Amino acid sequence: MPELPEMDNYRRLLSHEILDTPITDVAVHREKSINVASEVFIQTLVGHKIIYIERRGKHLLFHLDNGRRLLLHLMLGGLMYLGSKEDHPDRTTQIEISFGSKTLYFIGLRLGYLHLHTAKEIDEVLADLGPDLFDRKMNEQKFIQRFAKRRGALKSALINQHVIAGIGNCYADEIVFEAKIQPSSKLQDLTEKDLSDLYHASLKIIHHAIDHGGYIELPLTQDDKLTGGFNDLCQVYDRGGEPCLRCEGTIERAEIGGRKVFFCPKCQDEK
């Protein structure tokens, strides 16, 4: 599932490609991927422009020049590709938005969605979403406060979008590895220093992932060399049975709350 770095990578790349360009055509191949009738969706978009792209956690918000918003959540398996009919990947698309010769293809939206909302509706839909690491109101102390009074496994809290938005399975594992804490550690057993280490590890990992284009392997455009660069930089995620890159241990795979988790039992402390 695309997480904060992947969605921020999309935001930055698309902002250079499609802003202030008239939407010339829209095709909806799967009604369940949108929240209004296809005719309404198409009529609201065609002839208008996307003037700003915003990210909130794992969501992207496309601001239209008519005041409406498109709310995107790719969920599990969702991707985007910007290109022509000749070069786009041989994948089923649910929605296509064309900007003249370029088309933005939304791929794999079986669980994901692209919903049309007013600005007020967006605030209501995302009201329960927690702040993300780059929220202007977020800092180390507020990060610590959001975890200090909670109980349960550390990994479960890190991927809870009501606590901190944008972190999912991959980056939660990478963050706790960087902080040298086991993902199964109980929040109530963590010290303020542990939470401080976790905050700085979170910033380091997320910034590093953004700089390297996240872990999605499909390029956004035909000449995109950035997207997916972090895929080969993961220290523990999806590396079960492989040697730890920091010590002489072996990466283990386990489950916490029904979610797979990867960690090194030798250099990550269990609290």
Automatic annotation (TrEMBL):
Matches recorded under SUPFAM superfamilies: Glucocorticoid receptor-like (DNA-binding domain) (SSF57716), N-terminal domain of MutM-like DNA repair proteins (SSF81624), S13-like H2TH domain (SSF46946)
Superkingdom of source: Bacteria
Reactions listed under catalytic activity: Hydrolysis of DNA containing ring-opened 7-methylguanine residues, releasing 2,6-diamino-4-hydroxy-5-(N-methyl)formamidopyrimidine
The Formamidopyrimidine-DNA glycosylase catalytic domain, residue ranges: 2-112
EC number: 3.2.2.23, 4.2.99.18
InterPro entries (alphabetical): FPG_cat, FPG_N, H2TH_FPG, Ribosomal_uS13-like_H2TH, Znf_DNA_glyclase/AP_lyase, Znf_FPG/IleRS
SMART domains in the record: Fapy_DNA_glyco, H2TH
Pfam families attached to this UniProt entry: Fapy_DNA_glyco, H2TH, zf-FPG_IleRS
Domain FPG-type: 235-269
Presence of the UniProt keyword Lipoprotein in the record: no
Keywords: DNA damage, DNA repair, DNA-binding, Glycosidase, Hydrolase, Lyase, Metal-binding, Multifunctional enzyme, Zinc, Zinc-finger
PROSITE patterns: FPG_CAT, ZF_FPG_2
Family the entry assigns: Belongs to the FPG family.
Protein name: Formamidopyrimidine-DNA glycosylase
Organism: Paenibacillus shirakamiensis
High-level lineage: Bacteria, Bacillati, Bacillota, Bacilli, Bacillales
